Structure of Transposase IS116/IS110/IS902 C-terminal domain-containing protein:
Amino acid sequence: MTSAADPVFEAGEFSRFKSARSFAAWLGLTPSEHSSGESVRQGGITKAGNKHLRRVLVESAWHYLGCSPHPKDLAKGQAPDPAARRHAAKGARRLVGRRAAMLERGVQKNKANVATARELACWAGPLAAWPRARSGRGRAGIRSGHPTSGRIRGRWGGPRSLFLRAPQAPPA
């Protein structure tokens, strides 16, 4: 439970991040790059940004080592949002599959775990946007004329409204 709440407490307002990539960069989970002319070399993660949240996500990513890619049955009386449930199932399948593919290719366990943590961070952003994006705005959660009314979808299939700035009120 603490791991789920930490991104909200540490990151604060997710709308300040332009994309899931910028959120991962803020966490320091993106690879460093040493480029010169034609040569491009990537190194380890940058470790810039929020150390606590980076540690929490890396620790959480270890749980995807033995995780089932199939969603579990709901307990009696549970009724989560179907869209959030689909998004979670898709995310779990992707994380388990990517980690398995990396380990199969011979990538070191720790390196595969950090890559899984980065994927987890990129997956959590759109999911965090749903409650706010859907509140009081009708069935789709998006007003017509809003910058996200074109139903922009992220890499994970979730709405990217979290990463787009809210429209500013015109000056009076």
User: Anything to note?
Assistant: The radius of gyration is 18 Å. The helical segments are 2-11, 20-27, 51-61, 82-105, 109-134. Residues 23 and 65 are 23 Å apart (CA to CA).
